[in-house]
Amino acid sequence: MRRTRLLTAALIWLWVLSLSIAFPISAASKPKTPAKESKADIQRKAREQMARMRRIMALNREAIEHFKAGRFDKCKMKLDGILKIDPKNDIAHYNLACLYSRRKKFSKAISELNTAINNGYMSFAFMEQDPDLEPLRGLSGYKKILVRRDKIQRDRATKILASLKKRFGDEFICEIDHDNKLVFATDIDTHTLEELKVSLSKYADAQWKSLFENRFDEYVTVVIPRVPKNLPRMLGGAYDPGSRQLIVRSIGMVLTHEFTHALHFADQSARGQSHPIWIIEGLATLFESSKLVDGAAEPLPNHRANVIRSILRRKATIPWSEFFKLSHSQYMKKSALAYPQGRYIFMYLYERGLLRKWYDAYTSGYEDDRTGAKAIEKVMGKSLDKVEADWLVWAGKLKDVPLRVVARQAYIGVQLARQVDGLRIMRVVPGSAADRAGLKNGDVIVKLDGRRMADMGELLRTVTSHKVGDKVKIEFRRGGKYKTVTARLGAVPSDLMSGRRRPPRRPPRRPAPRTQPAKKKAA
After folding, report:
1. d(Cα 95, Cα 112) in Å, to the nearest integer?
2. At what angle do helices 277-288 and 253-271 cross, to 10 degrees?
3. Which is nearest to 122 in space by CA: 157, 97, 82?
4. Half-sphere exposure of residue 93, counting CA atoms within 13 Å on the CB side?
């Protein structure tokens, strides 16, 4: 049997419900054009849907407990209760198949398994290793399901594609990448999309090689609109593990963050596990800023280093024994502390070459400890308190990451505005490296030194990693055409620094909220 899949955040439910108007989630749903709903209506629906999902989760949890105890009649009552709430609940039908399999009612088991698949169940990797279905393995009905596996998944992807095309029309590129099990919907240009496919494929291969054991068993939908009308402004992106869809505002670190979620949830699904929020977000934030080195993803410092240093100075870190047990809602309430802390706990393991060893220890010992604490003690060879104490010392030595230009640093000389696929130049500083290289207002920088640039912080970190006088290659788009120039970096002008005021100090006990980057920034 398996547990019910639940969306990772109530806020994502708001997104899903808003998309249910503009972007059909189910391929079988009939598109309508309802009147525009108010924010209050959307929030009310979100609360109702979350209450419904919590009830389904509770019933499924009780069903599993009865199943494990051999109370099969009570187990069936709970599963029937789920189907009264949601007759097409694929997990309930799948678990009924497991129940009938254990009770040796094989024809009913095969029937329920087919019903589950017809209603959207696609986790074949888990199904093939589920011990509750072992009695069915040799039956022709079960073998026929496996023979149809590829066709079932491809048909599902085709239906998703049709719904995307119907919604977005000719303005969007909608296509399937069967090799990597990805479905794309975007209005970025073909050049960028083709590069994106290659980069996502390489990143996925790197993570499957070095961290996650299980590849995508189900197709993942990637939505990249230039104007994400239905995505709440406070979110850079979101991934829904239930429908396996992600939407992002840009193809930089936000996409890497959400795509890491997709990879991680695929691994969890194949294992039949549901990892806590600190692990889910910790791994995504670890790799959101990363580069590929010898076929492996190497995490890079980012702005969260500055935040964790600030938290350490205030002695405001969350004790690990508490941090590892945070619920999703608790984690989000403390997100300003939790996100950087989770990232740098994993960075600590990564720098010691222990990240994969920890993940293997955690997933193999999942039933004994779902928090991840025992796996840390195992790979570090110390008690959790001692590991935490060592981590505090290590984290205190982290270096700040540049968030703005400072005197005598390398400097390109542009003011930028972020857009979905690059950084638009709003102003070129006269006489600067950008000016000498021929860059103009309106150009969109897409790469620097061969690295994709979709975040202003990433460009600033890349530039300041050079010395004044170094040459860098800049790829940019102008009027739909891509060009590459070489620029010799200058130094930050003294008049720029003299006119800059020192930013006000933040309140000592109030962490900075998560916000979108400023519209313009000098780099």
Report:
1. 8
2. 140
3. 157
4. 18
